[in-house]
Amino acid sequence: MAAELHPAASHHHMPGFMTAPGESDLLMVVTGLFLLAGVVGFGVFYWTLHSLPERLAHRNHKLRFEIVAVLGLISLFTHEHIYWIAGLLLALVDLPDFGGWMGRVAGSVEKIAGVSESQKPPETPESEALDRKPADGPTKTPQEHVTSIRHARS
């Protein structure tokens, strides 16, 4: 190796990363592998962090999970981080169940009004519900209906 050195090169000390002509550069191979492992590791970390809101919302209601998933996709494709933050907050915060107590209120009102399951009209689209006339006589105004319920109780 001493015969192949340039005349201006130092003959006393050569660094260990210097390679002889025609040999493979060990430092470049190690640096390339380190760079490849770093890029793959960062990608795995990024995708794991990005899917965090979806994994948190998965145990909750299906509708919330779908909303969080859509917010995650929007943030991924638009690079707007506010959508990811909104999805994370939606996944973490337990929202009250508005549908449950509203259903109970509706059931209680039907019970007070004396409507039984057989008297409930079938569910139809809005246009058909507006055009339909009751088959059992003239309709009562809400005030007449409340008055008849009060008289039935007494």
Strand and helix map with partners:
Elements: H1 26-50, H2 52-57, H3 62-78, H4 81-92, H5 98-113, H6 126-131, H7 142-153
Helix pairs in contact: 3-4
What would you note in describing this structure?
With 154 residues, the protein is mostly helical. The chain contains 7 helices and no strands.
Measured between the Cα atoms of the first and last residue, the distance is 116 Å
Average pLDDT figure: 78
* Number of contiguous helices: 7
Number of strands: 0
Quaternary state of this entry equals single chain
Radius of gyration: 37 Å
For the largest beta-sheet, the strand count, sense and barrel status come to: none
Brief synopsis:
The chain is 61% helix and 0% strand.
What attributes does this structure have?
rod-shaped; mainly alpha; 154 residues; 7 helices
